[in-house]
Each structure stands twice: as C-alpha cells, then as structure tokens.
Specification:
Distance between the termini: 28 Å
Shape: globular
Radius of gyration: 26 Å
Strand order of the largest sheet: 1-2
Helix content: 55-70%
Number of strands: 6
Largest sheet: 2 strands, antiparallel
C-alpha cells in the first residue's frame, strides 16, 4: 500500500509526466534513427531508405553468409577486382561511382574488414587497402590480426609498449588467439543499428529517469512535511523503505519497457539475423570474444545497472542535501568527468575506464583497450564494471535507508 501511494504521488506530478514524455520521445527517436539508418544504393546510384531498401540490402549480404574462410575471402577479392575494373568504378562522375558502389553492397562489410586485416600497422587506417589485396594473401587474414597487435604491443616506439604490463600484453594476445576462426558472417543490420543508436535510450535515458526519483525524499522537505514524516510511527522505517522500493520498481519497469520496445521495433523492422556472428565483424580490433547478441545484451544490462547506480546516488544526495536541484547535477557531473580527466596521464586513463559513464556506453567502450590486473589475472574493463557497480548499489540501498533513519527534525 505504501509503495503504491509513493508511486501515485510521484507519477501525479506535472514534472513527472513531462519526464515520461521525454523518455518516450527518446525511445521513439532512437528507434526512428536506427530504422532510417539503413540505406540501399539502387541501379541508378540513388540512395533509398525504407523497408524495401532494408530487404534488398539483407538479400545482397545474405548471399555471402556462412564461414568467412579462405574460399569466401577469395570470392570477395575477385568480385571486388571485377567491380573495380568497370568503367563506372573508374569514372570521374559521382553518380557512376555510386552505381559501382551499389554492386559492392553485398561484400562491403567483408571488404571493409580487409582494410584492417591488411593494414600497415595496428593503428593505421587506409580505406583502400582492400582494393590492393590479392588472392594469394587470403591465408594471412586472421594471422595478421594477431601479428599487428603483437607488433603494436612490443614496438618500443608505440605508447602501448609502456602502457601495458607484460601480463596485460599476454592477456590481450591470448584473447586474440582464442577467438574461433573462421568468423561466421551474416547480414546483421538490425543488431548493428540497435547497438549504435542505443546511446539515446540508455545513456540519455539514465539522465532523464533520475528526474523521476529525485523528489522521493527531498519533496518532504520542500513541502515542509518532514516534521510529520519523521514523527509518524513508520516514517523512518516502513515509509522510507517504501520510497526506495517504489523508486526501484518505477525505474526497473520503465527501463525494461523502453528498452524492450526499442529492441523489438528495430529487430522487427530490420531483422534479427546475424546475432550469432562475432562482434569482430563489426569491431575488428575488439579483444572481447563475444557474439553480437551478447554484446547487445551486456550493453542493456550494464545500462540498467548504470541507471540504478545513478538513480540511487541521486536519491542519496537528495536525502543528504534536501535539494532536488543539486542532486540532479550529480549524474551530469559523473558523465562529463571523463572528458575533463582524459589526457592528464596514463594512470588517470585507468581510472576513467572504470567510471560509471562506461556502463551507459558499452557499445563504444568495447572498442577501448582498458585492461586491469588483479594478482596474476588480467581483465577487460567490461569484465569488472558490473561487479564494481553492483557492489556500490548494494551499499547505496542501506546507506539511503540509514540516512533517513538518522535524520534529525529541524
């Protein structure tokens, strides 16, 4: 009964209704950006969008689905050479070159991976390396991935040489060597768009949802009802626990409802194919050996953990300071903190890799080489982040409860 009362009290406020509209807007905008982010270049070199364009791209890339082995790589190289030899590909006219690009759409994602696999160095990027790859180089496709990393880690002229310990270097190399090859390839446009447009519902959504809970405790002081609240029989116990439960239920329900709608719309429209492909077909250098669907699941779960952390921290600051205005600035400060600290020193970079903003941007952070050693074991940041912040959440809940248990009436 108390939990229901707290929920009605919060959701009845005009500010909460506006917040819910903003939250719904983020889900809608994120979904629209994702489904409109897939384009198809037709026979005339014109770009098309919409469901028909999605189906054409899916069909073109499906023709190359399967193991990305030497046979497939050879066929991709020969097909690319055929297209590059056409008058359209060598024309100075933009539309003609667009027509040639349209012929490449089925192999484009594999062609792009070759730019990384055959690069001159781990950090170099030449968008036309793939056009110079020949059939006799296919056997080096996966071997080069490990070789380029090893050269980068052990070349004394590179920052990585001193940035990582020997244990961490071996960890990264083992991660690269342990991945199963050949990669499984498929059309994965739906997962791609769901991942890369998730900033709005996850990162921005966490900030928006904190506005819903900030008044759970500070409103008692703003309404001058704190004296009644604290002097009532269950004010410091059951009522305080009800506020915490209501906040957790509200945020949990809204978060997973929003993410569920966002995911269902995108995968329903663009297709759920390719979830079983390794994340390396999207992020070639990634050292986490996860499938695409696993990365997305990790992103939304860590987003939920991050949202809970920001919500509870905001509520604790609100209860501590009695100020809703000040407490809502805390998430913004923590999210902006990395940009203020970066480039100070490599030791600070280690700290930045474990800041809470990383929980809300997993699909970006998975690109980073944030590695940590504990004893004889090394871990990526994404291996550690959930445990760190679940522990902090477990501390924040009783801290929030005890804050009101001990609150003095003024």
């Amino acid at each position: 009964m108390m939990v229901r009362f707290e929920l009605k009290k919060v959701l009845g406020k005009t500010s909460s209704k506006i917040t819910l509209l903003i939250w719904a807007g983020l889900i809608l905008i994120g979904s629209l950006l994702a489904i409109n982010g897939v384009e198809w270049t037709d026979e005339q070199g014109q770009q098309q969008q919409g469901h028909a364009a999605v189906m054409k791209l899916r069909e073109a890339q499906k023709q190359w689905s399967g193991p990305l082995d030497e046979e497939t790589l050879t066929q991709v190289i020969l097909e690319n050479q055929r297209i590059e030899a056409t008058p359209e590909a060598n024309s100075q006219d933009t539309q003609q070159r667009n027509i040639a690009f349209g012929w490449k759409q089925g192999i484009y994602e594999i062609w792009w991976l070759m730019n990384y696999a055959y690069a001159d160095g781990f950090q170099s990027m030449d968008a036309y390396v793939a056009d110079r790859v020949t059939v006799d180089m296919v056997s080096q496709f996966y071997l080069n991935r490990v070789k380029l990393l090893r050269d980068w880690l052990y070349d004394e002229s590179n920052e990585a040489y001193s940035l990582f310990s020997e244990q961490e270097k071996q960890f990264l190399l083992q991660q690269y060597e342990q991945i199963e090859t050949p990669f499984q390839y498929d059309y994965w446009g739906g997962w791609n768009q769901a991942m890369y447009q998730s900033f709005l519902p996850i990162a921005m959504g966490a900030l928006v949802l904190t506005f819903l809970v900030v008044g759970f405790f500070s409103d008692e002081f703003r309404w001058k009802a704190d004296a009644i609240y604290f002097s009532s029989q269950y004010g410091r116990t059951k009522a305080t626990a009800a506020k915490i439960k209501a906040a957790l239920l509200l945020i949990t329900g809204l978060y997973w409802l929003g993410i569920g709608v966002y995911t269902a719309v995108i995968l329903g429209y663009l297709g759920a194919d390719g979830g079983g492909c390794p994340i390396q077909i999207s992020i070639w250098k990634c050292f986490y050996n996860w499938k695409i669907w696993q990365v997305y699941l990790i992103a939304v779960v860590l987003g939920y953990i991050g949202t809970l952390f920001f919500v509870l921290l905001t509520m604790w600051v609100s209860a501590k300071t009695k100020s809703a205005v000040f407490s809502v600035t805390i998430p913004f400060i923590l999210i902006l903190l990395p940009s203020m600290l970066e480039n100070l020193s490599t030791s600070v970079d280690k700290v930045i890799g474990l800041l809470p903003d990383r929980l809300l941007q997993v699909t970006q952070c998975i690109r980073y080489f944030d590695v940590y050693s504990i004893g004889q074991k090394s871990f990526g940041a994404l291996h550690l982040l959930p445990w760190i912040y679940l522990a902090l959440i477990a501390l924040l809940i009783p801290a929030l409860y005890l804050e009101f248990r001990r609150k003095q009436i003024t």
